[in-house]
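Predict the assembly for these two chains.
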Amino acid sequence: MEISLPTFDFLVVAPEIVVLITALLVMVVDMVIGREQKGRLAWVALVGVLAAGALSYYLWDGSDPALHDMLAADGYALFLNLAILVAAALAILFSLEYTGRVGLAQGEYYTLLLLSTAGMMLMAAAINLMTIFLALEILSISLYVLVGLNRAERRSAEAALKYFVLGAFASGFLLYGMALIYGQAGTTSLAGIRAAVQAGGEPSALLLVGLGLMIAGFGFKVALVPFQMWTPDVYQGAPTSVTAFMSVGAKVAGFAALGRVALYAFGDLQGDWRWVLAVLSALTMTVGNLAALRQANLKRMLAYSSIAHAGYALAGLAAGNAQGTSGLLFYLFAYAFMNAGAFAIIIAAGRFEGATGGGETLDDFAGLAARKPGLAVAMALFMLSLAGVPPLAGFLAKLYVFGAAVRGGLIWLAVFGVVNSVISAYYYLRVVVSMYMREGRPAAVPAPVCAGLQVGVALAAVAIVLLGLWPGPIVDLARVAALALLGG
Amino acid sequence: MVPASYYLILSAILFTVGAVGVLIRRNALVVFMSVEMMLNAANLTLLTYSRFLGDVQGQVFVLLVIAVAAAEVAVGLAIVVALFRHEATTDVDEANLLHG
């Protein structure tokens, strides 16, 4: 009997393969180099991430190749790859000095960071329920370990346990939803599900229950209310560089898969899911912002702020049109820079002598402008961008998603979003006020900041200004990516 | 032949028992078992549909899920051990340093 092997077009998953190989390489190099040289592992990881980014950009020719109904390298996946790789590259730059200071095992750290990155990229490329589930677990399991990697710190282990229990719980919901959808559609391929939905007429109740369970599962991953309760604890307890990475990467990956399932596979049932996402979006931004108002710990504040931002981004998805989808993509891209950048400043602040709260409290930021003017300017830019002040990237991102919501007939949601942005300005500006208007403690001595972190912060700050002033190229890419998904 | 609905109802019950177990049980190990129950309820659903649709994808999916669940529980137990070294307990409510 002759067995014909399926053809395997490696080029489709070339960026993911590069990241995976780099992860293994880091693990091997870790074993052969001396203890003093572990810092070099970061550079190996960074080269891998940059190579994957270059490949993602190079692959983008509009041909949208797919791998056996499992993975696709269409514009949608490649655009999100760029956002994910930006988060990974920034996280590596921010970790250079931090991992040594906190005492994280560097070999494991960079290996897991890259494995998690590969999982996120696979999730953006997945066009089958099986690959979505596998990719989600690759990224989640790596993140569970990363969160708990600081063995000396009890809060780290505690955060890992909370993230693990709720993450596994969410995986259960997601998987059960997938099982129901498989049963009703008769296939696990998203294209097959789309065809079944189009042919099926009135959708069966089980199919809608399955979709609901999947939305709940993804909701946990991207921290939508009411599935957000793990977020502040995990973001606070995890090593700060991991928080910077996961607050962006896991959200991008979750929205990537949610977007594909909702807009592509269930695109013909928009009437059934749009209002659910719209209500979740309004709830998420409101709860996130109100809770952020009363936080004194900056990591917790940014955790609630990231919940609110998941709500804003979801408004683009709830709009259900091409503008909303490209708005969502632009939002995620801008968010990668501004959110990761804000966490980087917390990492830097942790080094100041006399920083009582590990650089995490508002008091530690008092008078930062006088001691570290560069860092203070960058932090102010990140805060203003997160608040949505023009002409920064965060403003345009909100403009696109809320504009799309209005066009999609969800005027009330856009009003909700604008009101929420105004509320959020209070706690973002409080940080700026603290840096510029308050006196620092005399004991607080400025400490030199690692060059890698400076470069990362500078890149992120320049990126949000450029994205705000000159968004054209990225907006065009996002539009092409959205059309690749919606088949316009 | 046993009708498909019997299997589906059984798996729905198993899933509910697992979900409730995660929410109300406080011992981390029992919580892990409850999560496994949820995953296996989903597996049973996949297998049922696979059998009655005469389609092999569901069974492939189940094999993937079993492999993933094994990896997941290995990491979960490691996390419990890491926490146990700080505080000799497996009670998830004792993990309460982070709040507010």
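The radius of gyration of chain A is 22 Å. Chain A has 19 helices and two strands.
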